[in-house]
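Fresh eyes needed here. I'd like your take on this protein's tokenised backbone:
***
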Amino acid sequence: MKWRTPRACAAAAIACLAYIGGVGLAYGQASTPTVRWQLDVIENGVTVDTFKADTPLEQTQTQSREHEVVHAVGCAQVPQARASLSRSIAVTPSSVDERGVSFAIDATETLEDPASQHTSEGCTLPPQPRVVHATHPALIVGKTNWTDWTVVAHDPTLVYRLQASVLPAADDEGTRPAASSADAGSATESGSK
């Protein structure tokens, strides 16, 4: 076959390279692993919340919850006081190796201060909220164990307990949050004490 113009030759070469490149991409790339994880929030030794999802490696799954609490304050004029507490957690499975799965975790919690105060009239004031922001850049979760990260050491104690597994490639369908009601990280608090 005889090529008549340099343009036709270049077009044929580009088409050939595009075909070879496409075949290489179709067969040469492995899919991104998906990590199935569960994070339990443990406050004063009791599991108070659970977050679950199947998340592709290096993708972030963010889940938030809010709930209202009601306190009796012991005053005739105001018998109850309400407070809104929230929890937002961003979990990123960042790498997988022989030790397990490494996670980056960023969390913000609104907690109640356990100490109650009283007015001069004897009324009990509701607990004051405080905000805790915690970040862990690389929490390693073993392949068969739960890993604990103490976020707040006392008043109340707050621990995140995490487990994870890498799903087989056939189950890899993207991020799917599930419905549900290590101390190297950092935590900061704000609010009244």
